[in-house]
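Quick one - first record:
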Amino acid sequence: MKSAGPIFFAPRALALLAGLCLLVGCGKKSPPAPATGSAPAEGKNIFRNYAGSASCRTCHEEAFALWEKSNHALAERPVNTTADGAAFEPARTVLAGADRATVRFTNGQFQVTSLGLQTTQETFLVERVIGRDPLRQFLVPFPNGRLQVLAASYDPRSNEWFNSFGDENRQPGEWGSWTGRGMNWNAMCAECHNTRLQKNYAPATDTYQTTMAEMSVGCEACHGPLRAHNDWQAKFGQSHQPDPTVPKMSRDVVLNTCAFCHARRSNLTGDFPPGDRFDDHCSLEIVDDSDRFYPDGQIRDEDYEYTAFLGSRMHDHGVMCLDCHNPHSMKTLLPGNWLCLRCHGAGATNAPAIDPVRHAHHLVHGFATNGTMQNVDSAAYNSRTVKETGGECVNCHMPQTPYMQRHWRHDHGFTSPDPLLTKKFGIPNACNRCHTDQSADWALTWTERWYGEKMARPARARTDVLARARAGDVAVRDELLTRLPAESSPYWRAIEAGLLSAWIEQPAVSKVLLATLTDTNSLVRASAVRALSPLADGADTNIAAALKNCLADSSRNVRLAAAHALQATLDPSSPVAQEWQRYLAINVDQPTGQLQLGLMALAHNDLATALAHLQKAVAWDPFSPPLRQELAVVLSALNRPQEALQQLQEAGRQQPRSAEIHYQLGLAFHESGELEKTVAELQTAVELNPRHAAAWYNLGLAHSEQGHADDALAALTRAESLSPTAPNIPYARATVLARLGRATEARQAAQRALEIQPDFSAARQLLEMLPP
């Protein structure tokens, strides 16, 4: 994008459009070889060490009996008349958004008639089912080795079909439509519903040859390959010698194995062997500035269990999955409060002892008023039309949220209800989740009456800081800087490090984050790397050197975060570059994967390749504004400004309240010489995000071009307060002041620019031109 004179602001690299000048003609190294798609880690023989779950039955009858009826064992299976006949007979029709899907069993086949790839009604054969209870989703074969997940899902408890998207009216052509890549089994479902899956995607033909060691989550999904164990037992099992082939299942191994499928995360390798570390194969989504989670850590989106658990006090005190769940049935070890009182009962030494009746202030089924384990209240309890559940620990500390309309999941963050946080930030509390007819003020009155000063927990203070940071409160920066080094929980340190990225250009922030790169926890280090990444090619050589050191980190998650930050200068022959290429390869079948490849090509000034990848990303997901924004970057760099503007306008229609899109539209309109539209878009950007320093800066320059000097100075002053280490801003202010004849103030502003960047030649020239 062309500049408006010598000072029109260029935002940071990859912040779109004007930022391209930071990438063009920089003499970068050639990019690594293009991604070629996912491949099995051990070649075609990866499954030869697997024996199948059936081989475990003879020696492990009890464990096998528990497993074979579990949701793990039935995670995926072929459709059959015994289990699925009631769902398809008699035939019925279900509304699924814009679609009317009809399911039936006819001529020995399970069929569904629904809107297909051609947006017309087509009849498909149903091949498999994933899930068992509380809902089942059915798989339909598509061309090129694909399996797609129907939007129409089945609830076996009520014998009802329903739309798993709820009120969402997903249309054919959308990424999230049942025919789109967002509902593609090969990429989105298969690895967690099967044992040691290999996606095997071929980019050249856009086809899959997906394979797995065993359909469903079998014994070896958790224990690893067991053929060697079976062979050793057959040969030496009667000798009573120690079996050297038995996989070691430490508590950390168990947690890492569970986490792979019970976390919202991105896949780094496409192949997770049980026993490996989670952070060597996954990048975890945590509480950040998005709406995935609430600021106190409660789940909001479909976040599964692991992330919330990682932020809990339970995890911090060493509790693991199998302390509560049977490893084979995955049912809880005891019902109701009996499970919690294993550790929190009278005489407990490893956790605070809790009397459920006195603590909950609600009736507890099976407990007398003195808190002892009795059934004296059972008759009264069982006679109630509406059961009292407030005395059950999980209903206050593990509230449930429904996903896919029918699947109620317990939050594993073990948070405490806090109506004050509901009042201040809209964070839900368990009291009002149950008492929906009451207000947060009502709940707050009772909790304060019952618990008093205990409500002022450290978690409340932390949530207050994080919520304000997410809302853009500038004053919270110093509180985050204080909290981060003192935070005892690695999970919350990682979150605090990530939220500091909003002020990454400020030296005090980058200094603390640099120190955080040596944290003992890899999640914290990865978060710090991502926060520092905008400064990777900046003037601070200490930051660049520190990020380069992270390329050799012991955690692949950290190494790849650093590789992303440094991809423009990454040595193609280095081991970490090969890891980076593998990461890009396994995600190449999704729009986000094409985006990553496009950004890598852009970082190396390979605009033709970047254009091809980003055009494919938009074609695969035409309703994603960020993809169109990045495509606009490349089109602008290729001197195709009108096409870039069209992409941004469409992105703006899709996401009208995005400050970043309005900011970029302002730059695009400036490129086309439409100054009034430039000002209007930039003004909207700063109204939507008052912290957007680049938008304030460009707005100041645009006002200056219009001859509105006072408005220009006001906007530039605001920009400088938000980004005090950017030398362009005081220099721009100096030029406006000079034109107004305010030489003393102009000199001060130019001197400030030189203090920030001593080699800023334009500022020095201006200073020499000004009268003393």
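second record:
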Amino acid sequence: MVYSSKQQIYENVKRSNSILICLPKDPTIDAIAAGLALFSVLEKLEKKIKVMCNEFSLPPQHQFLPKSGEILKDLTSLRKFIISLDVTQTKVEELSYDIKDEKLDIFITPKNGVFRERDVSFSSTNYEYDLIFVIDSPDLTSLGRLYDDNTEFFYHTPIVNIDHNPGNEHFGQINLLDLTATSSSEIVFELIKDWKEDILDEYIATSLLTGIISKTKSFQTTSVTPKSLAIASHLISSGARREEIVQHLYQTKSVETLKLWGRALARLKLDKENRIVWSLLNKEDFEKVGTLDEEDIFSVIDELIVNAPEADIIMIVYQIEKNIIRAVINTPPNIDAIEMLKEFKPVGSKDFTKIVIAGEDIFLAEKKVLETIKNFLKASR
């Protein structure tokens, strides 16, 4: 029998004892929500499960998400190192250890006779986790230090890759990719809906609906499909707390954030030919409105995505610290921002990218990035 990808994933989950869910560095709300929903589902299946995200810090307005406190920052104790001592001929009287000068010394006192080097052997246990889910990540390097520090683990453990972005590199042993889905949360819903009767509860449904609402800007983007609306309806029927989601995502903006929006909108510029909308925020803007939170920049981008339909590329160039100029750029699926902005060593995903621009003048930085974008678009036509 040939299993579909969804069936293969379920069979692997049933065989697994301990499962790790990995989120990308700087995850979207969708990635967080999808990961937490899957965590809750696997808990119901009585699996040992952890969610990991490198250097993760959940913004206060997102702490309403069920199980949000379960996301861990560091991966520890992946494998145990075993020192074995043959006690067939010589028994142990006493065991102690000491750590000195970054060296561990183990002292074993025999009851009779002596221990020799040939009596000692070394080994390692299997990895703690026997299955990995990677959510909303184009490649493994997007996991940051979580992957960099544990590369061997990722090579030796089966990976289920869940994503909806066209730039995904199909790095999993099982790849569940749906380019027509609005979000990774939508894909997780399709994956788990038939795993067990009544698997959905209000907490899982709330997480999944949060991911869909965040990705569609409360169903205002062009990515919304009849399927995504049907899934949202089903989640609400299953107990998803829509009003609470909307309140936390869109109705908790501080006065400082609103003032920052005003300053960004006052400087808004449009390149009709290349369909680029952008704005500038300098250090004085942040100081005058009383916020230095980069999350406020992302909320400005979100507003422009919804309210600037004439734009394909949306960018905010900003400066919070002296001599450090940054930019965040949102692009449609057909434009690879990582490739477009490679000279700036971008980080993020291929549709939402962050860069640092050398120099002290924010206007020169603006000009340099715009020229790079326009040259890329011209070469792509």
